[in-house]
Amino acid sequence: MRSHQRNWQRDVETAKRHELALAAVGIHPPTPEEPEPEKPTLATWAKEWLETYVKVHCKFATHRLYEQVWDDHLEPTLSKKKLDEITRSDIRALIAAKVDQGLSKATVRNIMAPLRQMLGHAVEEGIIPSNPASKMGRFSKETSAKANAKRIVPYTAEEVQELLRRAEERSFDLYMFLLTAVLTGMRLGELLGFQWPDLDPLSKCIHVKRAVTRRRIETPKNHLQRRIDMSDELSRLDSPKS
């Protein structure tokens, strides 16, 4: 027993001497490589990205929109895939499936925007080498034909007059709201955010300074106000008396 112990100690000392001798001339034994950490799934990464990046750096409406896109379109299809397993073929299949469902090109772009951004952020963090959702190209005419099938049919002049007449019968505020929409083309959120101080009667214009989005008042995305010229008919209307 003691003989085996002496032999083991001698072997250890010999190995140490060899290691020191090699180190003296700049040769070091290779260290075992640590196993590469497992890549997160898209579900795990999306949750982190939405909470730590989008919620902090983007507007409330953008965060809500991206959450809805994830819940409705991305989570059911790609959530279980690891980031390094998502291919361009997966992205093309997703686009084709959404177009086949009859979604418009604008809706498909809204689906692709957060997916492309969250994967791009993963590239920046060094989790994946490239973004499989980047530069997917324009949708082909064949796949987008169904998306273009729905057309917006605007009201006729007679229908607009009837709408305004009925609104005026109900309330002055409703009439003014709809009349302003008709004569300016302001978006619904801009109309809801409009306040009388935004009106410049001398210049005959309206300064769009805010919009209501999902029950929240927000400023324009680029922080620049939009100026809308008023028609003579609209500028002649008096503001409500205090």
Mean pLDDT: 82
Please give the count of helices. 10
Given helix and strand content, the structural type is mainly alpha
| CATH arch. level architecture of the largest domain | Orthogonal Bundle
CATH topology heading of the largest domain:
DNA polymerase, domain 1
Strand order of the largest sheet: 1-2-5
Helix amount: 40-55%
How would you characterize the overall build of this protein?
- The chain is mainly alpha-helical and 242 residues long.
- The chain folds into 2 domains: 42-144, Tyrosine recombinase, N-terminal domain (DNA polymerase, domain 1); 157-235, no CATH class.
- It is 55% helix and 7% strand.
- It has 10 helices and 5 strands; from the N terminus they run αααααααααβββββα.
- The chain has helices at residues 2-24, 42-57, 60-78, 88-100, 105-124, 141-144, 157-170, 172-184, 188-193, 232-235, and strands spanning 199-200, 205-208, 211-213, 216-218, 226-229.
- The strands form 2 sheets. It has a 3-stranded antiparallel beta sheet with strand order 1-2-5, with no helix packed on it. Strands 3-4 form a two-stranded antiparallel sheet.
- Helix 2 packs antiparallel against helix 3 (60-78), helix 3 (60-78) crosses helix 5 (105-124) and helix 7 packs antiparallel against helix 8.
- The protein is elongated.
- 13% of the residues are buried.
- Residues 140-147 have low confidence and may be disordered.
